[in-house]
Design a protein that fits this description.
- By secondary structure, the chain is of the alpha+beta class.
- 28% of the residues lie in helices and 25% in strands.
- α1 crosses α2.
- Belongs to the BolA/IbaG family.
- Pfam families: BolA.
């Protein structure tokens, strides 16, 4: 069962309560999402470290072939 944008945002928000989060359905099918996460905690981290932190916040929602979140294009950055 696909995840809804609000569910993806809620998982990310749990890990990054003060972040600016934008979730976009890329294909209109509820299976292919993009997320932009802008958070001060990313300052000083490289892109891989930032994205690993966001994937950790997803708490396994992308793990395995039967996971509810199929695809997520992720953009992360610290605020300017």
């Amino acid at each position: 069962m696909p995840m809804e944008a609000k569910d993806i945002e809620a998982l990310i928000r749990d890990g990054f309560p003060d972040a600016r989060i934008t979730i976009t359905d890329l294909a209109g099918d509820g299976n292919h999402w993009a997320a932009e996460v802008i958070d001060a905690s990313f300052a000083g981290l490289n892109r891989v470290q930032q994205q690993r932190a966001v994937f950790a916040a997803l708490k396994g929602a992308m793990d395995g072939p039967n996971a509810p979140l199929h695809a997520l294009a992720l953009t992360t950055k610290a605020p300017a």
